[in-house]
Design goal:
With 603 residues, the protein is α/β, with parallel strands linked by helices. The chain contains 10 helices and 32 strands. The strands form 8 sheets. Strands 29-28-27-26-25-32-31-30 form an 8-stranded parallel β-sheet, covered by helices on one side. A 6-stranded antiparallel β-sheet has the order 3-2-4-10-7-8, with no helix packed on it.
Length: 603
């Protein structure tokens, strides 16, 4: 295929043309239910199963909001917004885009009947896009930057008995700066989607004792039949070493199908990290076919949390013929994956319910996929929990950032000119990483992501960079991630700009025949397919985007089956994983195996 023909297939002219479009408001079944019932409070489940407490208050629901031109606290409010849906979304009730020069304010009341002696009140945010300041009773209580990572603010010193006022001030530069943004653009089109802002995951508060578990890290040691549990208290995080704190009791209960099978109890110092080993007799391995989870309960002084883990091991090992393979529990395991960007027409990046998350995962599994590549997005923690318990491997992308991408240089030309795929990534201006502050911010948020998702059993691979978008120093960043997590596979550069870093040879193939290349590392096709078909009555826009199109569902199925047949052949030749693009249509991009509103399965 000639380069010009490929460029036409990519519809580059439509990507660059920001003219008028016609948009349709689609609703998934779950969004339609929320809308028809006029439900104010959604996503009421405890949002963090990997570190769960029972003493909590969900703060989703109706808040006041105001857009302002400066950061002065507003006197007059614009109206009501349904949290945790971004103001750009239909389900928020606002449908207004936050501009880079604007501020978005939230307010709600928090009633506190009493302040228990010796307790702290933590205010938790699943995510807020992109930077925010948190005020309690008009006093600044804390700040945060990073639009995808969870964060917590201790608001104990700012609350009082009775009615309290919570206010959040948000700014979001979106794609006008170097901050992490994923696939969001203020002017959406093609393979980039509507930008969102503000509170887009669950907000909740919970009472904890003065000394509480701030971070929990569970590492299954598959070969030694044990799991290592590392507990970090808030006193350690506050650098209270040498403060002479009294020892506390730490008890761990291990459950196997709701039965206590092991109990350990020791005395620990809160200013130290606590590391315990849980020995597993007759261990039950975790896999997509048998996703067995062990549950644990930890009583740390007066704090109590619940979590879980799975006994599994991710490695790259040679098979009996010496071919490098991805292995699960030391056995070669082909990972048949699908790209999933987690967008919804009425709520953008926010899943409307547990049922919506489960539907996407189960649909992928029913169609023969055992792996999801979570692309340029961090999901709510409950999404990973469902992958853990249902049995779905996950490749987790880091959130790409950097200034405006030159897609011709970093995306379209490397698609067809293979020698460019090995371009060095220390030319920061080429990959939109000239700002040192942006590079440091990416590293900070990368490590935060690894720590936040460390206990997710299903995550087998970290994907650091995609197609050169904001890529820099892949070798050094691979070492950085490896120092925090040595238990998972690292795809340092998915697509191209290969620096020979990480554990995989990872390429995207859209316009050429699929092949399995010989490599010292497991060879994976980390994106392919993308065949487009727009289903009438289920399309978001009058413009379509994809990598080749089919006129009807039968033709689409035939084209997919041919690609799938080729993937099966390549497994014998050394292919270790494949990622088909993609799970659902998203806005103009109509290459999903189901429509954007999840109402039509195309395959």
């Amino acid at each position: 295929m000639k380069i010009r023909e490929i460029m036409e297939t990519l519809q580059l002219n439509k990507l660059l043309d920001k003219g008028d479009r016609t948009y349709n408001q689609l609703l998934t079944p779950w969004g339609e239910q929320i809308d028809s019932e006029q439900r104010e409070v959604v996503l009421t489940e405890y949002p963090r199963p990997q570190l769960a407490r029972k003493n909590h208050i969900i703060l989703n629901g109706i808040w006041k909001y105001a857009f302002t031109s400066d950061d002065d606290q507003p006197v007059i409010w614009d109206g009501d917004i349904r949290v945790p849906f971004s103001p750009e979304t239909y389900l928020s009730g606002v449908q207004r885009q936050l501009k880079p020069e604007e501020y978005l304010w939230y307010e709600r009341k928090l009633m506190i009947d009493r302040i228990p002696t010796g307790k702290r009140l933590l205010l938790n945010f699943g995510a807020c896009d992109e930077r925010c300041r948190v005020y309690v009773n008009h006093t600044l209580a804390g700040t945060h930057s990073g639009g995808y990572q969870a964060f917590t603010i201790d608001i104990t010193d700012f609350i009082e008995v009775g009615k309290n006022t919570l206010r959040i001030c948000v700014q979001d530069k979106s794609d006008t700066s170097y901050h992490g943004r994923g696939k969001q653009m203020l002017k959406n089109g093609g393979m980039f989607y509507t930008a969102q802002s503000g509170l887009w995951q669950t907000v909740w508060c919970e009472w904890v004792p003065e000394t509480y578990i701030q971070e929990l890290r569970i590492t299954p040691d598959y070969d030694r039949d044990c799991a290592v549990v590392e507990i970090t208290s808030n006193k350690y995080m506050e650098n209270r070493e040498g403060a002479g704190l009294d020892a506390v009791s730490c008890k761990i209960l291990l459950f196997d199908q709701n039965q206590v099978v092991q109990e350990q109890k020791i005395s620990v110092l809160p200013e130290d990290k606590t590391i315990l080993q849980i020995n597993i007799q007759d261990k039950k391995s975790w896999s997509p076919e048998h996703p067995f989870l062990y549950e644990i309960r930890i009583v740390y002084g007066e704090d109590m949390v619940e979590s879980y883990f799975g006994m599994r091991l991710f490695t790259a090992e040679p098979d009996s013929n010496g071919v490098p393979r991805l292995c699960l529990n030391h056995l070669p395991y082909f990972q048949k994956g699908i790209l999933d960007q987690g967008y919804y027409p009425e709520s953008l990046l926010t899943p409307m319910s547990d049922e919506a998350m489960i539907y996407d995962i189960e649909t992928a599994k029913a169609k023969g996929f055992n792996m999801i590549r979570k692309h340029c997005k961090i999901e709510p923690m409950r999404w990973y929990y469902h992958c853990d318990r249902l049995g779905m491997l996950v490749w987790q992308d880091m959130i790409n950032g950097g200034t405006t991408y030159n897609l011709v240089k970093t995306c379209y030309i490397p698609t067809v000119l293979f020698p460019l795929r090995h371009k060095r990534d220390n030319d920061y201006s080429y990959t939109s990483r000239a700002d040192r502050a942006g590079r440091e911010e990416w590293k900070k948020e990368c490590i935060e992501t690894v720590r936040q998702l460390y206990n997710c059993v299903s995550i087998c691979t970290w994907v650091l960079f995609n197609e050169g978008w904001g890529q820099f120093d892949a070798k050094e960043n691979t070492d950085m991630v490896r120092a925090v997590d040595s238990t998972r596979i690292i795809d340092a550069h998915s697509g191209w700009f290969d620096q020979d870093a990480g554990d995989l040879k990872s390429e995207h193939i859209y316009f050429f025949e699929l092949v399995a290349k010989k490599s010292k590392k497991p060879y994976v096709i980390s994106e392919f397919g993308g065949i487009s078909h727009a289903v009438p009555g289920h399309i978001y826009s009058d413009r379509y985007f994809g990598y080749g199109s089919q006129g009807d569902l039968e033709a689409l199925k035939a084209a997919y089956d041919e690609l799938d047949r080729r993937v099966q052949e390549l497994k014998k030749e050394g292919l270790c994983a494949s990622v088909y693009t993609q799970l659902s249509d998203i806005e103009e991009e109509t290459n999903g195996i189901m429509t954007y509103d999840r109402r039509v399965l195309k395959l």
